[in-house]
Amino acid sequence: MNKPKNNVEGKLTLSVREVAKLLGISRNLAYEATRTGKIPVIKFGKRVLIPRKPLEELFGLDKPTESIEHGDAWDKSDEVVQIEVKKPLDKVIPVKLSADKWEKLRQEARELDIDPTTLVRMWILDHLRERGQATGEER
Question: Which of 82, 112, 115, 127 is least enclosed by beta carbons within 10 angstroms?
């Protein structure tokens, strides 16, 4: 049975997780922004919800939609840019770490505002790149 995709279209309020994904920031950073008042919230007991309209106005997310609705989405000075779509990752490497090493990895990743698995992947790719340069190989 397929789990339905979480669609934020048409919702009056969003969860902190949805806002983080929408803004392209970590969930921790989104929670911090709600705690400091940078993102407006409505609290229902322990539940924290973000009203969509003030959020869109705050970050200007409503502007592109307005432009499209009024037919002003493209400007004559806009430039067409070619993008390269990378191949999806399809190999998984299970790695076992002690709890203290895992916590150190999580902390370093948190400081960089990335996922720990992304940090490990970056380290591996950097290592392979360095080895390729040292041996003259292209990796």
Answer: 82
Choose among 27, 32, 33: nearest CA to 55: 33
User: Nearest-CA neighbor of 139 among 126, 122, 123, 90?
Assistant: 126
pLDDT, position 53: 85
Q: Is the residue at 53 inside a domain? A: yes
**Mean predicted confidence (pLDDT) in 69-95:** 74
**3-class secondary structure per residue, 24-50:** CCCHHHHHHHHHHCCCCCEEECCEEEE
The H or E element containing residue 14 is: strand 13-15
Six token digits for residue 77: 């000075």
Domain for residue 7, yes or no? Answer: no
How many domains are there within the chain?
Answer: 2
User: Are the C-beta atoms of residues 27 and 17 closer than 8 Å to each other?
Assistant: yes
The C-alpha atoms of residue 20 and residue 39 are separated, in whole angstroms, by 11
In a domain, 88, yes or no: no
Task: Quote the pTM value.
Answer: 0.41
* The predicted structure's pLDDT at residue 139: 45
Which domain covers residue 17, as residue numbers? 13-69
Place of tokens 């591996």: 124
